[in-house]
Amino acid sequence: MAIRAHAARSALGTRRGLTLFAGNAFATFGVIGGSLQVYDVLTPQPSYQPLVMVLLLAVLPVTVGLVRAWPRRTLSRNLGRPDTTITITVGDLFDQDTHLVIGYTDTFDTDTTDTRIIHPTSVQAQFQRRYYADLPALDDAIAQALPPPTPDPTKTIGKSARHPVGAVAVLDAGPHRAFCLAYARMGDDLVVRGTVDDIWTSLSTLWDAVYRHAHRQPVSIAVIGSDLARVDSLDRASLIRLIVLSYIARSRTSVVTRELRIVIHPSDADKVDMLELAAFLATA
Question: Which parts pass through the membrane (predicted)?
């Protein structure tokens, strides 16, 4: 219900939504009106049923306007050259039959028993419950996938060593691969902090890892930085734009993957204006 209310507000309560609604409604009205004029000329004694006229000149244009202005839950654009597609969709990241991008901090902490370190609702916690319930095995896999970290004796809870922001550990995730990306810093106070520069740098190294290991198969990523990383200077739509721009910039060099899928969790759908994103994606 909340998602439908948000969609209605986007369609009828925003400038872009009203522009789409009015433009398509008036265009439909014009086409029908022109067709009726042709009918008048070609028919010696035209007759019109009042109900039919109401449907044609009022209900149909309004319906077409609403349908065209109603925000979609999935947006997609193929860049052409290079041959890659960017998809923005509302759904569950773990329902995607693709490789996955999983956000981590620079310490690659994995202990989900202490909620101060990893929140149980985070994407990382969900990933570990699904694929790596054995934490020692996960720690071993991360250690093998990354260069040795730099010790940090000031961090006394959880792991006490750090990797550079942008480090990517490529792990197995069922039939796919998980690109575990350190895009924020874990403070000594166990507060995760990230910046726009951190995310941009991390995305750049992420695309390189995807290029090397994904074999151009589709990759899905959540809206990183939107919650626990505390990148408060950007809202979710702006973070999505950042991901898209970074991906396009890297794709101009070479094809990274056939499809990048940015997944918006359903609980965040009412925080994103899909009409604005559709306009952005069409021109990016």
Answer: 20-39, 51-71
Beta strand 259-264 pairing with 219-222: parallel
| Mode of pairing for the β-strands spanning 192-193 and 176-186 | antiparallel
Paired tokens of 59: 């209900």
Please state, in angstroms and rounded to a whole number, the distance separating the CA atoms of residues 196 and 275: 24
Residue intervals of the chain classified under CATH 3.40.220.10 are 74-283
| Token pair recorded at residue 32 | 């029908």
CB–CB of 223/267 below 8 Å?
no
Global confidence as pTM? 0.85
Give the single-character DSSP code of 216.
B
pLDDT above 60 for 157:
yes
At the fourth CATH level, the homologous superfamily of domain 74-283 is Leucine Aminopeptidase, subunit E, domain 1 (3.40.220.10)
**Phi/psi at 25 (nearest 5 deg)?**
-65, -45
pLDDT digits (tens, 9 = 90+) for 129-150: 999 989 999 999 999 999 999 9
| Number of other residues whose CB lies within 10 A of the CB of residue 267 | 11
Q: Are 90 and 264 in contact (CB under 8 A)?
A: yes
Characterise 175 by phi-psi region: left (phi > 0), alpha (psi -120 to 50), beta (else).
alpha
HSE, side-chain direction, 13 A CA sphere, residue 132: 22
